Amino acid sequence: MITVKLYSAIRKYGGKEVMFEYVEGLTVRDIVEKLKIPLKEISIIILDHFDSTTDIMIDREVKESSLIHLFPPMAGG
Question: How far apart are CA 70 and CA 14, in angstroms?
């Protein structure tokens, strides 16, 4: 199983946590598309403790039991 944790405004696409069956060749992009999250709404992706911007992480392949965190752009003061 793949665990996807959603944060802040992105939770409207599936709640706090969503589970997916592992399929060989599955990428972060595949999961984001299944959740119907527009890429512009994701700022940071953490995949198995490695994090970077969406453009770097989106096409990474996931493994059985991967953990993905999806964060929207943050604002504050």
Answer: 11
CB atoms inside a 10 Å sphere around CB 16: 9
Superfamily of domain 2-71: Beta-grasp domain (3.10.20.30)
What gap in Å lies between CA 17 and CA 3, rounded to an integer?
Answer: 7
pLDDT at 76: 55
Q: Which residues contact 73 (CB under 8 A, 6 or more apart)?
A: 41, 43
Gap between the Cα atoms of 9 and 71, Å rounded:
8
pTM score: 0.91
Q: Domain coordinates of the chain in residue numbers?
A: 2-71
